[in-house]
Amino acid sequence: MKTLVAGGAGFIGSHLCDALLEEGHTVVCVDDLSRGTEENIGHLKECEAFRFYRSDVREVDALKTIFEKEKPEYVFHLVANSDIQASAKSPEVEYQCTYTTTFNILQCMKEFGVKKLFFASTSAVYGDKRGIELTENTPNLSPVSYYGAAKLGSEALISAYSYMDDIQALIFRFPNVIGPRLTHGVIYDFIRKLNDNSSRLEILGDGKQTKPYIYVKDLVQAIVSMKESEQTGVRLYNLGVDSSTSVTRIADILCEEMELENVEYCYTGGEAGWKGDVPRFQYCLDKIHAAGWRAQFDSDEAVRMAVKHELGKLE
Amino acid sequence: MKTLVAGGAGFIGSHLCDALLEEGHTVVCVDDLSRGTEENIGHLKECEAFRFYRSDVREVDALKTIFEKEKPEYVFHLVANSDIQASAKSPEVEYQCTYTTTFNILQCMKEFGVKKLFFASTSAVYGDKRGIELTENTPNLSPVSYYGAAKLGSEALISAYSYMDDIQALIFRFPNVIGPRLTHGVIYDFIRKLNDNSSRLEILGDGKQTKPYIYVKDLVQAIVSMKESEQTGVRLYNLGVDSSTSVTRIADILCEEMELENVEYCYTGGEAGWKGDVPRFQYCLDKIHAAGWRAQFDSDEAVRMAVKHELGKLE
User: Fold this and answer.
1) What ipTM was estimated for this complex?
2) Which residues 81-110 of A have a C-beta within 8 angstroms of B?
3) Torsion over CA: B87, B90, B91, B93 (sign)
4) CB of A279 within 8 Å of any CB in chain B?
5) Residue of B74, B105, B106 whose CA lies nearest to B2
6) Do the Cβ atoms of A293 and A225 come closer than 8 Å?
7) pLDDT digits (tens, 9 = 90+) for A151-160
8) How far apart are CA B241 and CA A202, in angstroms?
């Protein structure tokens, strides 16, 4: 099958390219390399079933040219601003990179008759619903970040195009995703801080922010194994792991793996790491488990493996 | 209070300008007159508390200039493509006129510190949920029109800005709104068709599409009376009437008022009038009733009054 992976040189996208090629598909990778990197896809350059377009999905005409030429059968849409903390200062980033890219992709799919879509959504669409186990049927989605808002708006677009243009869509609402090729986030920040000063670690918030972390290869395996279905319309799943890890626990794992002792943790205080952060959430995963998928690694294991990768201890 | 009514020369917006002026507020009306008309606000031109900017809310820089000069305290956002049937052919219209206008307004409110917003949403955010009485807590909003998708995306943006920028927002999900200054819709279409041929009326669908119709002055009274609140964050209400009217019943009322007998109704067939139409829905109105508002006119009354207006039988 010919697939188009938008955002395919990014952290998650590049792992997805690997997995799709592994399964024997042709992969057309589209990425503007603003957050993605050539390094992430460098190992694929000699691969015949792989081609790369350096192109900005915000530019609909350029995207149409690629659709026209390549005629993909399945589009995996992973283009977004992936750094909520960064876009808190500039909502324009979410309007352009998260919402407009979805609109452009759907317009191309409509115009060129492409009928299959995967979309990377997020737990941030729910907003701050502490104390509620989040199911796909939780009502009153109230994002507290511009990122969550642009993703929820994207889901709404997909719902309408699915109905109007007979597009079959698979949507996963991702939790925190970690692993090789990570570009930002708490593990990334902590390593940088500890490299600067190994006796003291500044921790945003009270360190009790507790979230499920999924290992990127687990997540990609879920996308690949569930991409085909007889079902029409939109299939939407919370994707995650049953366990979760606090920010302080992440610091502990990191200090263990870096073999640092007596690091002083300095908390900036407050429940959330930054405004727009959701300090705690827990998914109900019954729906995706019933569909036959389950993560291989729990949250602490995912953190430890991601840490080891960052430290160069794992392939 | 100085108010800015975006879309203030439109069908609903112009009635809102009237009501706000009536209450003693200053009204800054912004409209590009693409769907709104000079006629709708012609009677306000001599009014000192009213000023009009012919400006396109899709252009954020022009909008910023108006915010900077006028310093409004309250923004009423009624800019949208209001014709679902039309945008079914061109989703770009919803991206630009419905979603981007919301983003631009929120960006201006953020930049100029405006803290109060009213937003006109729609029953179309729910999608086709036949058999379910729609409450504000109904889960799984799945729009089947590009219009509904852009409005749901706008609600999501408002949720995030409300949290991030301390904006107090009132959102009404409108049903079908009718009355003086109507520009499109079933009543408008039927009158045009019967003026062309008074013996035969083509009716889209099976005529059993049944929806609540609210009289525009009832709706505007709800906005004006509920605009102020001590509550922070987003207040969201279904707005409507307890009753509803079928398309065939609208045709009957119209024939009565036009004094036409034996008009042959020709149904195009199918449950929905067009693709993306939701043929039946019913709101639960407990929340807005509990807040102290109730419509004066029921759905059939609203239809009859709107018809009489269109026929020039009412002021």
Assistant:
1) 0.96
2) 88, 91-92, 95, 99-100, 103, 106-107, 110
3) negative
4) no
5) B74
6) yes
7) 999 999 999 9
8) 56
| Integer Cα distance of B171 and B200 in angstroms | 41
- Which tens digits make up the pLDDT trace of B2-41? 999 999 999 999 999 999 999 999 999 999 999 999 999 9
DSSP class per residue in B36-93: S-HHHHGGGTT-TTEEEEE--TT-HHHHHHHHHHH--SEEEE--S---HHHHTT-THH
- Cross-chain residue pair B153–A154, CB shorter than 8 Å: yes
- Tokens 């995967």 correspond to A118
Q: How far apart are CA B3 and CA B78, in angstroms?
A: 13
- What are the DSSP E strand ranges found in A64-199? 74-77, 116-122, 133-134, 168-174, 176-178
Q: From A145, which residue of chain B is nearest by alpha-carbon distance?
A: B160
CB-based contact A164 B146, cutoff 8 Å: yes
What beta strand segments (E) does A32-85 contain? 50-54, 74-77
pLDDT tens, residue by residue, B225-258: 999 998 899 999 999 999 999 999 999 999 999 9
Q: Residue A280 has what DSSP assignment?
A: B
